[in-house]
Structures are given as structure tokens and as C-alpha cells.
């Protein structure tokens, strides 16, 4: 599991993640079927009520979403559990074993979080969330 005190740094393909994709990813982390209003994202992810979404809140939300998708309760997501066509390339499956572990899942979403964290303070402000929507 990543160190929650040090934001992950975007690497490789993750540096090129468009902000629109990052906004959709945050909607996914929030468990929303589509991109909700900014206020709804903030309310759902800002569990401590400080007005920001920190990396721990993002990871907790990602874990809850991961667990809700893991219908087999085996600690890994199959293509079917992720809603992907059989045999489709899954960018989250870093080791290409056909399953996505939580570490692989968080690696991707943690990098999206870091890419959105423009001031590198380990949390997303309303302005950083708003920038993702533009």
C-alpha cells in the first residue's frame, strides 16, 4: 500500500491523463454512475469536512469502490467485475495477469490524484477539483 503521507508522483502514461479523464475517475472513486456536480464530489469524498479531499480520503473511497466491484470477494477485480469486454486491454492490470489487485487499482487512481494536486500539498482543493472539470 502506498505511503499516504507522500503523494504518488505521476509516471509514464499517467502524466498524460487528461483532466477530463481525471474528473471521471474521481466520479468513479465517489461511486457515482456519472460525473456529479462538484459539490457532490466534494461532499462524498471530503469525509472529515475540512473542505479538501486529501489522499487518505481518496484512498478510502477507492477501497470502498474496489470492494463494491469485487463481487467474488477474492481481493481482485476481473474484467467482468470492472465491466470490460472479455479480453479487452485493461490499463489498470500492470502485471497482465487478467486481474486487478487493489495495489494496481490505487496505483492508477493515486497517480490521477497526484496529477490533479497542482500545488503538491497532498490534498485537492475546490479550485483543483474545478480545474479538473474544465
Automatic annotation (TrEMBL):
Pfam families: EF-hand_5
Gene3D superfamilies named in the record: EF-hand
This protein's name: EF-hand domain-containing protein
Signal in keyword set: yes
Domain EF-hand: 104-134
Region forming the signal peptide: 1-39
Alphabetical UniProt keywords: Signal
InterPro entries (UniProt xref): EF-hand-dom_pair (IPR011992), EF_Hand_1_Ca_BS (IPR018247), EF_hand_dom (IPR002048)
